[in-house]
Write a structure and sequence with these properties.
By secondary structure, this protein is an alpha/beta fold. It folds into two domains: 5-136, NusB-like (N-utilizing Substance Protein B Homolog, Chain A); 235-439, Vaccinia Virus protein VP39 (Rossmann fold, 3-Layer(aba) Sandwich), CATH 3.40.50.150. 49% of the residues lie in helices and 15% in strands. It has helices at 5-20, 24-35, 39-54, 56-66, 76-91, 97-111, 115-135, 142-148, 153-163, 165-175, 192-198, 225-228, 237-246, 263-271, 285-298, 340-343, 346-365, 386-395, 424-427; strands at 181-185, 203-206, 209-215, 232-234, 253-257, 277-282, 303-307, 319-324, 367-377, 399-401, 420-421, 433-439. A hairpin with a 2-residue loop joins strand 2 and strand 3 (209-215). Helix 4 packs across helix 7 (115-135). The longest helix has 21 residues, at 115-135.
């Protein structure tokens, strides 16, 4: 018997991620569309693919215990089939062990070669022993927690120091759960109440975000007619909060740097009621084109998409509000973007900090007197977040940080309450850092 369509879809996604360098979310959307999965199979395939990518370190540890050949010596298709099989044994309660064994053998057969014989032997051992192997692991040190919760050691050590052991462990555990599904009602076209009625799935209002909805059932957002008509924008609650903190007003000039894919720029346009100007700058041609398409779909006519380097000044002191969401390590998005943890390392942060400093200097030049600069990242990294802000304020005495904890006490940064730090395990959404700086007259 052939492997199920959902498992074949997950297998193709995992193959594309680990051996083709693809991004999990994009690969999944493409493969699920190609397979024409129904809602139930789509949800199962996504959970299986995402969990396999997220849990790679733990899965490979178990595989080393069960197989005579380590993962790096296995043919990649066989290795990835075994990873998917182990994911079902260890992390998908709804799959009986016998089904995980037989389906994994079928995946190995479809991949070609004689590896299915090894797959059968390994999976039979897994059905018996895999749970016990994982049960012997602990979280007593950053390195041990990194193995059990499948994160690179450098991330575990950074969070251990920044958040403390208990918070770091809770955060890593949360990273391996499905991400919350949230959308922004595009108020240029509809209201949150109208959108909630139109979505054929159970929803609830998002706290602190009048235009936000959380979707509590499986729903293909990107394939929905509501997406095509521009009534909604898939966007995490943390990302939506950025434009709310920016607080753009009708008639103002707003600058959004490193703006693709345009979620925040179009949100700003909606908050302005379509009155004013939002200049959205993006360096990469493909991303700028996609952002322009998003603006058109959402009816955000006041957004002026410009391709250019965000380190270059558009207009000195030309904007009441400037938003900078620079390239960052993305460590707050590991639920929705499971491969990110395996793409970055400590050297990545060193490079990003240098880039963020240059972008901040450019952004500051373009803020009018009494104007505001909002700096946000989708990461949980002190060097990119609060340390970056403290260094900026020391070097730019004409800026002062607003105390955001007064308006958003639930998200106040533990070490400096002027800033916000959203954390997946505490707030249920992406990990975002947000600061608002005001330029003195």
């Amino acid at each position: 018997m052939a492997a199920s369509a959902a498992r074949r879809c997950a297998f193709r996604v995992v193959r594309r991620v680990f051996d083709g360098g693809a991004f999990t979310d994009r690969a999944f959307r493409a493969e699920a569309e190609r397979a024409r999965l129904d809602a139930r199979d789509r949800a199962f395939a996504q959970h299986l693919a995402y969990a396999t990518v997220q849990r790679r370190a733990t899965l490979d540890h178990v595989l080393r215990e069960l197989s005579s050949r380590p993962p790096e010596e296995l043919d990649p298709p066989l290795r990835d089939a075994l990873r998917i099989g182990l994911t079902q044994i260890l992390y998908v309660d709804s799959v009986p062990a016998r089904a995980a064994v037989s389906e994994t053998v079928e995946l190995a057969k479809e991949a070609g070669g004689g590896g299915f014989r090894l797959a059968n032997a390994v999976m039979r051992r897994a059905a018996r022993d895999a749970q016990a192997i994982v049960a012997r692991l602990d979280e007593d040190s950053p390195e041990h927690a990194a193995l059990l919760d499948s994160h690179p050691d450098w991330i575990a050590r950074m969070w251990w120091d920044a958040l403390g052991p208990e918070e770091a462990r809770a955060l890593m555990r949360r990273d391996n759960e499905p991400a919350e599904s949230a959308v922004r009602a595009n108020t240029l076209r509809t209201t949150a109440e109208e959108l909630a009625q139109a979505i054929p799935a159970r929803t609830r209002p998002a706290p602190d975000l009048p235009e936000g909805l959380v979707i509590e059932e499986p729903y293909d957002l990107h394939g929905s007619p509501l997406f095509a008509s521009g009534d909604l924008m898939p966007q995490s609650r943390a990302s939506m909060l950025v434009a709310r903190v920016l607080d753009p007003q009708p008639g103002e000039r707003v600058l959004d740097l490193c703006a693709a894919p345009g979620a925040k720029a179009t949100h700003a346009a909606a908050l302005m009621g379509g009155d004013g100007e939002v200049v959205a700058v993006e360096k990469h041609a493909g991303r700028a084109k996609a952002m322009a398409a998003n603006c058109e779909r959402l009816g955000a006519a006041i957004v002026d998409v410009r391709r250019g380097d965000s380190r270059e000044v558009v207009e000195r002191a030309g904007f009441e509000r400037v938003l900078l969401d620079p390239p960052c390590s993305d460590l707050g998005t590991l639920q929705a973007r499971p491969d990110v943890r395996w793409r970055k390392d400590a050297a990545t942060v060193d490079r990003l900090v240098t880039e963020q400093e240059a972008l901040l200097d450019s952004a500051a030049e373009q803020v009018r007197a009494d104007g505001t600069l909002v700096y946000s990242t989708c990461t949980i990294s002190p060097r990119e977040n609060e340390e970056r802000m403290l260094a900026f304020l020391e070097n730019h005495p004409d800026f002062a940080a607003d105390d955001l904890s007064a308006a958003y006490p639930a998200y106040a940064h533990a070490r400096d309450g002027r800033f916000l730090q959203l954390l997946p395990h505490r707030h249920g959404t992406d990990g975002f850092f947000i600061a608002r700086l005001r330029r003195t007259a």
